[in-house]
Amino acid sequence: MIIPIGILAPASGKYTISALELNFKIGVNVFLIDKEKNKRINLNENPDYTFRTSKINTKDRFEIIFKLDKNLKEEKNDELSDIEITNSESVNIYSDFDKVYIKLQNISGNNNTVIIQDVVGRKIIEKRIAEDFIRIDMQNYASGTYIIKLKTENKIYEEKVFIR
């Protein structure tokens, strides 16, 4: 997931971007990309990045990237810890303004679970589903990026969506 970061500086000079708290599960790496300097900073290892700018408004210089370390498995107490995370044509996950839609094709079972997390990894919604088309209303949640996970009997499907 990539999140653009804009900086509105009061004057040209030296500034620091700090990741004050990174409350992610083990295996989530957070990177700051400085596109102007062509630098990639792992905020898990170095939470502060100092830079100079002569521009007062830099809308597209920085990005935050969240990456899941695919070499690490989910926590051992999770019954799906050995199942790969995948995207597929058999599952279509998308959003439209304040709604999340999940469409299943050729996936059977009444034991499917949808989990919605914010970008920090906090669980917002968890519900069991048996239908092959689901609409989840998100109007009571803040605008932003959310991670939608669909756990079936043998796979985990994951997609990021933006809610307005």
- For the CA atoms, what is the radius of gyration? 19 Å
CATH architecture of the largest domain: Sandwich
Q: What is the percent of helical residues?
A: under 10%
Total E-strand runs: 14
| Average pLDDT over all residues | 80
Q: What fold name stands as the CATH topology of the largest domain?
A: Immunoglobulin-like
Low-confidence regions: 71-87
Number of domains: 2
> Cα distance, first to last residue?
17 Å
User: What is the strand content?
Assistant: over 45%
Distinct helical segment count: 0
The biggest beta sheet is recorded as:
5 strands, mixed
**What overall form do the CA principal axes indicate?**
elongated
Structural class based on helices, strands and sheet pairing = mainly beta
Task: Please give the order of strands in the largest beta sheet.
Answer: 7-14-13-10-11
CATH top level class name of the largest domain: Mainly Beta
Describe the protein in words:
The chain has strands spanning 2-8, 13-18, 28-34, 39-42, 48-53, 57-68, 85-86, 91-96, 99-104, 112-118, 123-129, 133-137, 144-151, 156-163. The protein is mainly β and 164 residues long. The protein folds into two domains: 2-68, no CATH class; 85-163, Immunoglobulin-like. A five-stranded mixed β-sheet has the order 7-14-13-10-11, with no helix packed on it. Strands 1-6-3-4 form a four-stranded antiparallel β-sheet, with no helix packed on it. A three-stranded antiparallel β-sheet has the order 8-9-12, with no helix packed on it. The two termini are 17 Å apart.
